[in-house]
Amino acid sequence: MSTPAREPQQERSRTTRRRLIEAAVECLGEHGWSGTTVAVIAQRAGVSRGAAQHHFRTREELVTAAVEYVGAEQVTRLREYAGRLPSGESRIEPVVDMLLNLYTGPMFRAALHLWVAASADEALRSVLAPLEARVGREAHRVSVELLGVNESHPGVREMVQATLDLARGLGLANLLRDDARRRARIVRQWARVLGTALPEPGSAITRPTDITMPTP
Amino acid sequence: MSTPAREPQQERSRTTRRRLIEAAVECLGEHGWSGTTVAVIAQRAGVSRGAAQHHFRTREELVTAAVEYVGAEQVTRLREYAGRLPSGESRIEPVVDMLLNLYTGPMFRAALHLWVAASADEALRSVLAPLEARVGREAHRVSVELLGVNESHPGVREMVQATLDLARGLGLANLLRDDARRRARIVRQWARVLGTALPEPGSAITRPTDITMPTP
């Protein structure tokens, strides 16, 4: 792993693996779980079936790798985007914009096919449920970091969770039509709500938050 | 329609229709769109294939009727539940609780199968997209009514929309595991936020709301 230049075969193997994973995401989005077999994925990736099965024995293994890949890609892109943002209070709207647009692409479509299939398939569910929980926790952790909030304040954790649940709901709403305009208005409003409900970035620890219970 | 007691045949026909629709919802949730044919639905409903096709020529027609049925059922249940709630400010939490639990049952699972299938099937999408928009508008209208809010205030419309999008995201999160405990905490938090951000029920028209823009 440490000297890829000296190991072209290992490098090639990584490329093959990555192409299989990307083909799996595309297949899932287009044909759903029932139409996604190792053979179909291999063909799409331009890889022999034998080579594909050398990397992944079953489609469950391949899909596990795909979900991990998508999750890691997402976190990487979030971090890159966040690195270009200004610091301070003005971060909230661009961060919310980024988070609420997280599930509007082809990767979410692929994941949705998987979730729906897993809801009726015990074996797939047992693979997917813990994986999805882990990817979800990671998305949550990065969101907390990007919003610059402190989860020890009451209600903050739930607001970050609600932001990601809302993002997935908006992903659903975008499935059958282009929902970008309506979503943009919700982004603006949600950023306002979070700006009021969450402690300002940087002041999370020292300043009491106005999110504490309004009723006893 | 007005004298069902005198028209047992018409009554029987309605019962058959309803059984077919209910069987369609069950089939979709269990086998997805690809496994849901008029023949499979008819068998499940205990109706001959000929009788089924007398009511619905294609599975698209049957599924259209199913989506309309599910939407109407939902609105009816929302109204019934809301009718039993106390009036005044204390309505917000039970209404939010009801709305955020709206998509956690088998009907949402069935709808999800359809949406996902429609995202890769032009013919199904052209049937489903306008229908889904109509059912969504109706859910929105009832939510506005139950929350007792006034959409002419800036941001209120988006807050109600966000509540329903959040509800669908929570439905997704509930697909692979029982997410009820986490959801209950989000319900409490979201009710607090809405209680602060939305004008109180009954005062929507006369009182200015604190949801107006915090920034220019």
UniProtKB/TrEMBL annotation, chains A, B:
Organism listed in the record: Amycolatopsis acididurans
UniProt keyword terms in alphabetical order: DNA-binding
Keyword Iron belongs to the record: no
PROSITE patterns named among the record's database cross-references: HTH_TETR_2 (PS50977)
Designated name of the protein: TetR family transcriptional regulator
Stored PANTHER family: HTH-TYPE TRANSCRIPTIONAL REGULATOR PKSA, HTH-TYPE TRANSCRIPTIONAL REGULATOR RUTR
Higher taxonomy: Bacteria, Bacillati, Actinomycetota, Actinomycetes, Pseudonocardiales
DNA-binding found in the keyword field: yes
Short name of any one Pfam family annotated for the protein: TetR_N
Signal peptide (UniProt feature, chain positions): none
DNA-binding region(s), residue ranges: 37-56
HTH tetR-type domain location: 14-74
